[in-house]
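Posting for a labmate who doesn't have an account.
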Amino acid sequence: MELVVNEAHQRVRDRVKRFTGFELLPRPAVAAQFLAGHTAGDPVAERFVAETYHGEMGAERARELLDEALAVGIDGIDDAPESMRALFTEFETVPDWVDPVLIEQGAAVWRRWGYSLGAVGNAGTMDTYTEGSLAIPLSLSGGYAGASALHRYLETSRWWLEVCQPGAVLTPGSRAREVSLKVRVMHVSVRARVAEHPEWDSAAHGLPISQSEMMLTLLGGSVGPALGLYALGFVTSPAEIRAVLHFNRYLGHLVGCRVDEMYPESVLDGVRLLYYFDATRKHDSGPLGPELVEGFVPSFEPPAGMRGLTRLRAKYHLHLQAGYTRLFMLPWNRRHYRLPSGLPGLAVLILRAPLIVATEVARRLSPGVDRWVQASSMRRWRRWHAWHLGQREERFDAGRRLRR
């Protein structure tokens, strides 16, 4: 496969370089790593999944074994296969570059962003469904297709909610670490199944859920929302953006992303990689892009039997999500999809921006206000998540079959 910068993006790069001196594209070495990352997976986790979930053990027993190891520790499992021990050794090893102070500062940024992090991240993700390499795995697995779109979003939201809890990602045995390992195993299982599917073209797309694509999701949780949320009143300082970039780097380590090679060393490096992705789009997702994009916001539509304030609440979140997509999807991509106008939700976002700015100023003046902002934001986010989830269960199911 190859990545080619299109002419329009090259012209923009040339003009920016000429008038400001800033280079919008990554260094050739980083671009080469990004290309190579499209054919790279997660060998340690892949060996475990092949031996257990996709092997003679079977998905049900493998799931039980993983749950047991997460509960008592890998040393407490006498019959754990060697591939499982290797996975846990890698997962539980804290890299030398980890700075616990920066990890906590980055998690605090996520807590302040709260619900907006998920909404902006999802709008940005929907914008990437022009690409077959991203749309095909999601469509085949059914993750964000049709009626399951909201539940899959709630699963992802659960991971966000857990990992940004104070101290959670560095605490052995925490729910945050448990969910992270299950997400890693689930991605590997989907990768293996999609790679064998006749709809997948490895010559054109490389490897499903590749290292490069996982790295982009980390930028979608750090540099992307940090810059985008300025439009809604969230004033994230350069130091805070660097902290959340470090936090996402460690999250990448937990879910099997190689964060020692092409991961951005600075905010500007992150901007360059995001621009490079946009500049090298292939727009080859065909009908799968609309299937995914047009199915998400309508999944927030209240059921026919819902009445009263509960129905109004559901409608509010429907319009709010539509507002985020209107604001954060690139307009030249968004126009190719049939989406709700998003204008009511956009109006809400704009009207509340001055209040968010005032809160941002106050939190910088008072640590107590800052703690209150974090707690309040998380409380609202958890309440929304619990209300939407209802009686359903998040399983992060690595044994789930493709839907076609």
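Reply:
Got it, the structure tokens are right above this. The mean pLDDT is 93.
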